[in-house]
UniProtKB/TrEMBL annotation:
Residues 534-554 are annotated as: Disordered. Signal peptide: none annotated. InterPro entries: Vps62 (IPR009291). It comes from Dipteronia sinensis. It holds the Pfam family Vps62. Residues 543-554 have a biased composition (Basic and acidic residues). This is Vacuolar protein sorting-associated protein 62.
């Protein structure tokens, strides 16, 4: 279903000097392709167990504010429009005004008694007494469900009269799951900690490949009190054939051809990615504790690596022993690089997460910025082996890309598609930071730290880039069963690099000599607080040993 915006005519009490971002509707640069045939993927509706749900991204504006919320630009509240015949609202949609309109809510069709009308509404809040710029007065309502049913979202009106009971549905309790607040949408202050009434997005509390909670796309309004339980629920997919709406292998390939990211490297980057097999074939070694003098060459797909177990320190990988070969392997092999793709169901199999894992044989030294001084950190940050990833979250209703997760050292963040750069149609553009390879949506400098001192994450567009769609290996898609053969190296559970032997304290002292007195102690405290992923004291574990392999990214 396409995005469109239908405006009512609320009274605008303010004269805006310039258009707000939300007054523009975001669309992907190119139309969605026709996906290869399959079972339930991309068909527009999903059966979650006796309840048909459909994703709506066209809206009618009901009410808006012009201050408060992110960037103090206010927020806008909508009802879903162009609802197919026989489907009913489960809740309204809200979005901050600081980005283009781009969102969705689910509507439901019931043929089995899975839904019921609310028996009443409770007024949760109104903006009547609020001294802010707003389009009329907004009223937030909570449906009162019949016994055995739950409400999945709030309603918004611009009238003090209660909404109609006929257009809204509550859902049978066994088809619901617990949810929690997600991103802050709006409140009267500059952030969500401000006392008073705040609006948040919602997401299932339990998320992962085996979790069946389904996001409805609605919002919740509540006063700032952590002890208040969320008064609404999310959906739950109890369909025994729940994976039928996931993409099949041909559809996976089409999704990658459509969205596969470009990764741009800094013009000064010396440590580029490679395929895993190239790393193994060019002299990588397997070490065993107690037999350090007898390392073993690794076979092309890692067939001689120890399988399973835990990261117990008994084994580790390292660069070739020969110095010339070591220096060459450190630089990677960008031209023949291959990425590794993991496909997993998310949010009750209503979305597909396409996790694209990129391997770098070496992570280079870090650099810091202390006030106006740029500081090379010697060997701090260096380690053998570096796994970074970017995850595409795609709707199983229509195959549309909604957000992208960018890994950054030990963390990362989700970026809405409306905030991304694209090229060659709908292919996402990302930027890998110099030496550390953290992923960002925009070029420039990001400081990792507090105050005036931080680790530099420099990104820029250069002639060096990786088109992840040119060469990829589908390494796992558990829901497809035996259709995908996992490579042996994926089940190697130990570290992909040795524990670094250099003395962190000595490296810090070398750097402190370059700093003015007032920054020395602050810098020492800052470095000691950095995680191992940044300090580079040991190599990383592989993709399958990361929490997000079977869980959500955040």
């Amino acid at each position: 279903m396409g995005n469109c915006l239908i405006f009512n005519s609320p009274t605008d009490v303010s004269k805006k000097s310039k258009a707000l971002p939300i007054e523009t509707t975001f669309k992907l640069p190119s139309p969605l392709p026709t996906w290869p045939p399959g079972e339930g993927f991309g068909t527009g509706t999903i059966d979650v167990g006796g309840l048909q749900v459909c994703q709506i991204s066209s809206f009618t504006k009901v009410w808006g504010t012009h201050e408060g919320g992110p960037d103090n630009l206010g927020a806008t509240f909508y009802e879903p429009s162009s609802i197919p015949q026989g489907f009913y609202m489960l809740g309204c949609y809200a979005q901050p005004n600081n980005r283009p309109l781009f969102g969705w809510v689910l509507v439901a069709k019931d043929d089995t008694g899975s839904t019921n009308k609310p028996i009443d509404y409770t007024l949760v809040w109104s903006s009547e007494s609020l001294n802010i710029k707003q389009d009329g007065i907004g009223y937030v309502w909570l449906p009162t469900p019949p016994d055995g049913y739950k409400a999945l979202g709030h309603l918004i009106t611009n009238s003090p009269q209660k909404p109609s009971l006929d257009n809204f549905r509550c859902v049978r309790s066994d088809l619901t799951d617990q949810c929690q607040t997600d991103t802050w949408i709006w409140g009267p202050g500059k952030d969500s900690s401000t006392d008073g009434f705040n609006i948040f997005g919602l997401r299932p509390s339990n998320r992962g490949t085996q979790a069946m909670g389904v996001s409805v796309g609605t919002f919740v309004g509540q006063t700032q009190n952590e002890n208040n339980p969320v008064p609404v629920a999310c959906l739950k997919n109890i369909n025994l054939s729940k994976y039928s709406c996931m993409p099949n292998p041909r559809q996976i390939e089409a999704l990658l051809q459509t969205y596969s990211p470009f990764v741009y490297f800094h013009p000064d980057e010396a440590y580029l990615p490679s395929s895993v097999s190239w790393f193994f074939n060019n002299g990588a070694l397997l070490y065993k504790r107690g037999e350090e003098s007898q390392p073993v060459a690794i076979e092309s797909m890692g067939t001689n690596l120890p399988q399973g177990g835990s990261n117990d320190g008994a084994y580790w990988l390292d660069l070739p022993a020969d110095n010339k070969a070591k220096d060459r392997v450190k630089k990677g092999d960008l031209q023949n690089s291959q990425v590794n793709v993991h496909i997993k169901p998310m949010l009750g199999a209503t979305f597909t997460d396409i996790a694209i894992w990129i391997y770098y044989p070496f992570n280079g030294p870090a650099r810091a910025k202390a006030e106006f001084i740029n500081i090379p950190l010697g060997r701090i940050g260096e380690h053998v082996g570096d796994w970074e990833h970017v995850t595409l979250r795609v709707s199983n209703f229509n195959g549309e890309l909604w957000s992208v997760y960018l890994s950054q050292h030990s963390g990362g963040n989700w970026v809405n598609a409306s905030d991304l750069e694209f090229q060659a149609g709908n292919k996402v553009v990302t930027y890998a930071s110099l030496h550390g390879h953290a992923m960002y949506a925009k070029p420039g400098l990001v400081l990792q730290g507090n105050g005036a001192i931080g680790i530099r994450n420099d990104t820029a567009k250069s002639k060096m880039f990786l088109d992840t769609g040119l060469s990829f290996s589908l390494i796992a898609a558990e829901y497809l069963g035996s259709a995908i053969n996992e490579p042996p190296w994926l089940n190697y559970s130990r570290e992909w690099g040795p524990k670094i032997s250099y003395d962190i304290a000595d490296e810090i002292k070398k750097v402190e000599k370059l700093l003015p007195g007032k920054l020395k102690s602050a810098f020492d405290k800052f470095v000691k607080g950095l995680p191992n992923e940044v300090l580079g004291q040991e190599g990383p574990t592989g993709p399958k040993d990361k929490r997000n392999w079977s869980g959500d990214e955040i």
